[in-house]
Amino acid sequence: MIELPKTSRRKFLKNLGYISVGFPMLGFAFLNQDPEMAARVLYNGNLPGSMRNANQINAWLRVMEDGSVKVFSGKVELGQGIRMAICQVAAEELDMELDQVEVHLAETGLTPDEGYTAGSGSVPNSAMSARYAAAMARKKLLELASKKLNTPESELILYNGLVKTKNGSQSMNFAQLLEGAQLEMEVTKPVPVKVKSGYRYVGKAIPRKDIPKMVRAEEIYIQDLRFPGMLHARVLRPAGYQSKLEKLDDSGLGSAVSGLVKTVVNGSFVGVITVREYEAVKAVDFLKKRSQWSESPDFPRQENMYSHLKEIADPPQQIRNDGNVNEANNGISTYQASYTKPYLQHGSIGPGCGIAMFDGDILHIWSHSQGIYPMRRAISGMLKMDQEKIHVISVPGAGCFGHSTADDAAADAAILAMTLPGKHIRVQWSREDEHTWEPYGSSMILDLKAGLDSQGKIQTWTTDVWTDTHSMRPDSDPATLLDTRYLESPAQLKGRGYLGGGHRNADPYYSIPNMQVNAHFFNGPLRVSSLRSLGSYGTIFSIESFMDELAEKEGKDPIEFRLTHLEDPRAIEVLKKIKETTNSAKLNDGEGIGFAFSRYKNTTAYAAVAVHVAVDTKSGAVKVLKMWAAVDVGEIINMDGIINQLEGGMIQAASWTLKEEVTFEGNKITSEDWDSYPIFRFPEIPEVEVHMINRPEEAAEGGGEVSMPPTGAAIANAVYKASGKRVYDLPITPEKILS
Amino acid sequence: MPKFTIKLNGSKKTIEADSDTPLLYVLRDHLELNGPKFGCGLSQCGACMVLINGKAATSCIRPISSVGDAEIITLEGLADKNGKLHPVQEAFVEEQAAQCGYCLNGMVMASVALLDSKPNPNDEEIKEALELNLCRCSTQARIIKAVKKAVKNSAGL
Hints:
CATH architecture of the largest domain in chain B: Roll
Strand order of the largest sheet of chain A: 11-12-9-19-16-17-18
Distance between the termini of chain B: 52 Å
Radius of gyration of chain A: 27 Å
Number of strands of chain A: 28
Strand content of chain B: 5-15%
CATH superfamily of the largest domain in chain B: Beta-grasp domain
Shape of chain B: globular
Radius of gyration of chain B: 15 Å
CATH topology of the largest domain in chain A: Aldehyde Oxidoreductase, domain 4
Helix content of chain B: 25-40%
Number of strands of chain B: 5
Largest interface: A-B, 69 and 62 residues
Number of helices of chain B: 5
Structural class of chain B: alpha+beta
Strand order of the largest sheet of chain B: 2-1-5-3-4
CATH superfamily of the largest domain in chain A: Aldehyde oxidase/xanthine dehydrogenase, molybdopterin binding domain
Number of domains of chain A: 3
Number of domains of chain B: 2
Oligomer: heterodimer
Shape of chain A: globular
């Protein structure tokens, strides 16, 4: 077994990070003796969903001319560090140095179609596909080497990119073995995977390769791409969601703004192309003042929003119905409560950006979309152009936290590029457009009812959830792209109902014999789509707030009350861990600690969160002092990467919970910048502490979303403990605490 | 079109631009730098920060015509001539204080300016110095650790 040298974390980072020199084809040169190879065990479990349509080794992994390996993933980098995680698992199975494995992320025609990078699904799908493809590749490479070197496999060592005979007489790298061919065979079970006790990289805190590039200001983001002769563009968004362009006077634009290339008008789509970026900013301001639009209908009044949403909802669909809630409610004590969550913004720090170039045959698009293949299907429909004629390359943007404006910016660029063949057109969205046109996370209403028997056990539970869809992601319906609704022949967008995960986690993970979930879908007034953790943040906010209320009515400790309703030992362990972690926390007057738990999607990772707050009872101000999480994501791939995601998830959810709400008045969205849509700033940032329960033998689940749902409820529960005030309506503002 | 000569990362650069062009656009578009980022164009988020005469300042609403002979340092200008990173840059790598990293430019620039004026800040002073800088990935807890690590690195600990 090859062990990494045991060193302090700082030294470890230095040794493996940017300061270290890469050893791309080091081979065995530095070893005095042969490495002891980790054993392999046969994996006979399920292969990841992503392998269904891409089951050959070479769909995931190819050997380069120098014998290094390139892994292909259909997922994109969103700041979650997936590139590193995929590199780790592939290098692990192939016993290579990390620098010998490059990861090529989503590009049409080159990488597998893995749909969207979403739902905490990249580790279970893409990284696990890379694991099994790499493990199978190792097996095939050894078989091949055995023939070529005329040596039994038991006398061969495959290490750091070489296969050599144990007697040292012969060695070949992977390229020499394959002689220009690739491993075109299928990944079939059983797959001989490395025994987990032999891991060099998986489960360890391997530093990301991209952070050193970030601090050196290297080219990383789509915003950094520059092509010879590239032109800049901006799009003039309509005056409102349903406004149509009535008049546009662009006379005088050429003399008012230098560098004007052209104005493009198609129905109510208006774009302007210039030589320099700031010229496009000025041009679109000029056109804004000289355009007339039909009035878009008013939104409902904000203060009446929740009653409006209930009015417009479809009849409920029963999502779950265990036992008989109505019968079981007879003769026991029942309680109910209602919770609400406003529309929330993704609030990416970098507004949407897209680059496109039509070479006369193929339309090339660079995009920070979360799903380049589905986006290609949508753009193909929008432009009525064969999919095969569209080539999309994923390039990182700023963190997006779900379906934000990347795809819309790519569509803008595509429309404009088609009018100017041979030119790269770069479209940059403005902050105001990003804030007012992005697809928000849906507002939700949750009415809960529970019945408890005389022993304080929950016998009945009913969740009624009102929600819009949580998925309007681009796909084969071109109307999912904003632009298509404003083109000369516009497309209409239809609601999605269940597809969007609106009632995700609406059924508590607790053992309750009679349980009913009813979903009331509405087609709400604001543009919506997927926001990190989808419906779970709202559903868990309500369920876990209500659990604390029920515990109090029964005179029980909130964690003990939860434990009496849980059977799953992994759920029990995260709760016990969070209790133990916070036992020694000291509370002053006006302070409280609140807890909450969820298992994301009820099928993946487990998280228990505790939050320590101080509430100023005079001003109502809430200060989050510290947050803890105890998390079980099964097998951990990158210890530091998962902790980084979980810390960020808690802090982002705390910002949602205490500060955020999309506002509107008349027919305008009024939360249009960071002053009118404030989010957490540094003085509000609490200390965070994450405890991982590593279970290498369990399936590896993603962690991008799991810490968010319990954070909202834990804050509400902490505020109640600190102030005696329970807030049912998000965000938890000082006014609501004082009311 | 008017010409401007600015002092950038220790050398002089001459560019032609409309005089109302914000410094950020000159740095990114005319001079092809990647460090300063466009985040809001409203001086609300800090992604575009640079050092102007040693002070961290946003560049997105500052017209090029107002820059004059101020010394501008960008993220590109922090490492020494041999490519050795500034202690703040090193600390961000060591603490892995980034997720998407889009805000990192502003975080590093604001931290460099802070440590220049206050070599050993406490948590509250760090938070105050970075108040303008937004991070939606919510990596702030690590960024605070990185600033403290930079203090230690600078002191040769």
